[in-house]
Amino acid sequence: MTATVAEQRTPRSGWSKFVATYRIEAAMLGALVVLAVVLTIIEPRFLSSSNMQNILSQVMVLGIIAIGQTLVVLTGGIDLSVGGIAAVSIVMGGLVMPSAGVLVGVSVMLLVGLLAGLVNGILVAYVKLAPFIVTLGMMSITASLAYVLSDGRSIFNLPDAFAFFGKGNIAGVKFYVIVFVVLYIAAHIFLTRSKPGRFIYAIGSNPEAARLSGIRVSFYQVIPYAVTGLLCALAMTIESSRLGTIDPNTGSGFELTTIAAVVIGGASLMGGKGSVLGTLIGIFLIGVLQNGLNIIGVNAFWQGTALGTVIILAVVLDRLVRVRKR
């Protein structure tokens, strides 16, 4: 008996604590490792440094946007407008950048994204419209505006200084990698160590109980949508800088992939459950899956089938876990 008690009091290792706290995230991390091993066996080129850089550049854009999508889903909402907001923000900034300069152009991009997100949040939180309807409408509006403002053509005449955001280095590390890492660390700290972060979880779990406990529910429902809009603009600013062009058609499918990353990472579409750590694993799982299927020559249409299957399985798993807890 004494030995048993002593064993129970033995401090857990770091990995044991991680698994105990983030069970679903740990399972998804294991799945990611297994997937990487399988793809490496099938195609050794998968682990090449050039391919790893390719995966990182692919997940960077959607990974940044997925942080905002995580916040929205945690409140019990959903944002289908991320692709449209990303497109219209970079188009509007790109149109003024050649004459007004990089600083003004980037500021316009970020401001447009923030304002579009604020409109979403206000309509959902204060006007009490359904998130699905609001963001679906915003997706249509912003995607159309991006196309009309640019005449459906890409913008190429961008200042040389704009290239820093997507190609520049700080102490030998890509600027966008630094931004990516800092944003995920900041989001994790915000959700796990701050009162507003806890309020977001509370609102997603039970908005009425949160209101009765004194939380300004409507105010904290607006924040995730505003942040998502801002992150859409930031992500596409970096991506457009990396590619050297602004494409008004950019953003198509962003909503599906970011929602998939959030759900695969263990978040519940009902709200109140999830983490940015899970989202990070989810977005890499999707990126590795798509990249691996490309390398081994799987048809693009089948790649969509694979992604859709993973999403459905993740939702079914979440449902089974919720039923089991009851």
Number of helices: 15
Q: Report the principal-axis shape.
A: globular
Order of helices and strands: HHHHHHHHEEHHHHHHH
Number of strands: 2
Q: How big is the Rg?
A: 21 Å
Measured by DSSP, the beta-strand proportion falls in under 5%
Structural class comes to mainly alpha
Biggest sheet strand order reads 1-2
Residue stretches low in confidence (pLDDT < 50, at least 5 long) are 1-8
Terminal Cα separation, in Å?
33 Å
Major beta sheet summary: 2 strands, antiparallel
Instruction: Look at the structure and give the mean pLDDT.
Output: 89
Q: Give the number of domains.
A: 1
Q: What is the share of helical residues?
A: over 70%
How would you briefly describe this protein structure?
The protein has 326 residues and is mainly alpha-helical. Helix content is 76%, strand content 1%.
Description:
The protein has helices at 2-9, 14-21, 23-42, 49-74, 82-100, 102-125, 131-149, 164-167, 175-193, 195-205, 207-212, 217-243, 254-264, 276-295, 300-325; strands at 169-170, 173-174. It is mainly α. The protein has one domain. The chain has a two-stranded antiparallel ribbon with strand order 1-2. Helix 13 (254-264) crosses helix 15 (300-325). The model is unreliable at 1-8 (pLDDT under 50).
Summarize the helices and strands and which ones pair or pack.
Blueprint: H1 2-9, H2 14-21, H3 23-42, H4 49-74, H5 82-100, H6 102-125, H7 131-149, H8 164-167, E1 169-170, E2 173-174, H9 175-193, H10 195-205, H11 207-212, H12 217-243, H13 254-264, H14 276-295, H15 300-325
